[in-house]
Design brief:
Layout (H helix, E strand, L loop, with lengths): L29 E2 L2 E2 H8 L3 E5 H14 L4 E5 L6 H9 L3 E4 L2 H9 L7 E3 L6 H10 L3 E4 L2 H11 L5 E8 L21 E2 L4 H10 L4 E7 L10 H21 L5 E3 L17 H19 L5 E4 L3 H4 L3 E13 L2 E6 L8 H5 L6 E3 L7 E7 L8 E9 L7 E5 L20 E5 L2 E6 L4 H7 L4
Parallel strand pairs: 3-19, 4-5, 4-12, 5-6, 6-7, 7-8, 8-9, 8-10, 10-11, 11-12, 14-16
Antiparallel strand pairs: 1-2, 3-13, 13-14, 13-18, 15-18, 16-17, 19-20
Helix pairs in contact: 4-5, 8-9
Bound molecules: pyridoxal-5'-phosphate.
Length: about 450
């Protein structure tokens, strides 16, 4: 039903959308100068849209907030060749956790010396690729890695390493993304002495040069405080290492985990405050310990790319049972496993048309054969939502496609970059041919 009179609508809240988002008429949403309905029309749905300038601006914001630090983009949040270029061009380094991420970056021209390799369980192939390609640093995560790495480097060789330390701090948006506490799979604990023990063993390996300590507290952290606590614990360890071994470390990597707002009204981590307070805490702690101030390294992933991405879906079906409405889209847990994994919530909205129908709470379902494939159980959409409608999910740039799966063989969605009024395909949709070509047995 259409009405002749525009009702007095409050303009939609675009606070979690990219800065370039424009909505001249309600529903006619464009990002990077490109109407999203046009992207959906041209590339089909589901499709992921990435605002190139938003990514670049976020890289620049980091460089400006942390001028003397090394900023490494955490590739696991999202990686493709264009992303590698943008990261390199904006002066960031790269943090990778597999031979795959590493090979893609180096094959795209990323300088290997600006890459750091992580991983709680690095495969022989990961280490082989790291040494062959000459990565800047390898972060040691377990005692057994030390001898393995030293042997792979060889007696005449040389490799810079850091040690992943567990500072014993709980922070992060969900239990499954807290990594700074004792008793989880990452790193070596200060509390039980494992970290100190591993460091002693590294110092016995002449081909390994220990440049610094590393920690990563978790993800989706919105307060500065845990980072300051981490600085104190890490400098405390550095002071003990100095006493015991005369060791002076030149780098301190505080990892990533910087939180972002997924829905209007949510809080993001304040980067300016983080930069200022971490710098002050680090200077003071080092002064007290009589240590020179190490160079700071940070590793944001989500905060660089998350808010720059938008997922577009078509509504496939609408079921009304009792007072419940189920709206199913043409994507789901295979392109975005986060709701199923961590119960996170988004702010999806109808775009492409202006509905004057009253809003109604609906359950937004994915298309997969899994009762848990629910994007959200309580989303406000116009009550006349119907098959064929276009839905947009903002803040979809991080940990969606990088965690995408092949479930139900629907094929992973494409990635389209928008910038200055043009849309270009970065990663094409996974086709049935792609799926068939891997299936080589009979
Ligand atoms: C995942 C991870 C990051 C990035 O985390 P975000 O929450 O995306 O900022 C950085 N460093 C390490 C070691 C990680 O595992």
């Amino acid at each position: 039903m259409t009405t002749l009179h525009e009702p007095a609508v409050t303009s939609p809240d675009l606070s979690v959308w990219p800065v370039s988002t424009d909505e001249p008429r309600v529903g006619a949403v464009s990002v990077g100068g490109v109407p999203l309905a046009e992207v959906a029309e041209r590339f089909g749905t589901p499709v992921y849209v990435l605002d190139e300038n938003e990514v670049r601006e976020r890289c620049r914001t980091y460089r400006a907030a942390f001028p003397d630090a090394e900023v490494l983009y955490a590739a696991k949040a999202f990686l493709c060749r264009a992303m590698v270029h943008w990261t390199a061009e904006e002066g960031l380094g790269l943090d990778v956790c597999s031979a795959g991420e590493l090979e893609l970056a180096v094959a795209t021209g990323f300088p290997p010396e600006r890459i750091v390799l992580h991983g709680n369980a690095k495969s022989p192939r990961d280490l082989e690729a790291a040494l062959r390609l000459g990565v800047g640093r390898i972060v040691i995560d377990s005692p057994s890695e030390i001898a393995r790495l030293a042997a792979a480097v060889g007696p005449g060789g040389h490799q810079k390493v850091m040690v992943r330390v567990v500072p014993g701090i709980s922070a992060g948006g969900h239990d499954k993304i807290r990594t700074g506490t004792d008793d989880q799979k990452f790193g070596l604990s200060i509390a039980d002495g494992y970290a100190q023990h591993a460091i002693t063993r590294i110092l016995d390996q002449p081909q390994l040069e220990l440049t610094g300590l590393h920690c990563h507290l978790g993800s989706q952290i919105t307060s500065v405080k845990p980072y300051l606590a981490a600085v104190r614990r890490m400098v405390g360890l550095m002071a003990r290492l100095h006493e015991q071994h005369g060791l002076i470390l030149t780098e301190l990597d505080l990892g990533g985990g910087h939180g972002i707002a997924y829905r209007p009204g949510e809080q993001a981590l304040d980067l300016t405050a983080l930069a200022r307070k971490v710098r002050a805490e680090l200077s003071e702690a080092c002064a007290v310990a009589g240590l020179p101030v190490p160079r700071l390294i940070i590793e944001p992933g989500r905060a660089v790319v998350g808010p720059a991405g938008i997922a577009l879906y078509h509504v496939l079906s609408v079921k009304r049972t009792g007072d419940h409405t189920f709206v199913a889209i043409d994507g789901g847990m295979s392109d975005n496993p986060r709701p199923a994994l961590y119960g996170v919530r988004y702010a999806p909205r109808l775009i492409g048309r202006h509905s004057t129908a009253a809003p109604a709470a609906v359950t937004l379902m994915g298309r997969h054969c899994e009762a848990g494939d629910v994007l959200d159980t309580d989303v406000e959409l116009p009550s006349d939502v119907r098959p064929g409608d276009l839905l947009a999910v903002p803040v979809a740039g991080a940990y969606h496609l990088s965690m995408a799966s092949g479930y139900n063989l629907v094929g992973r969605p494409p990635v389209v970059a928008v910038d200055a009024g043009t849309a270009r395909l970065l990663v094409r949709r996974e086709s049935l041919d792609d799926i068939r070509s891997r299936d080589v047995g009979l």
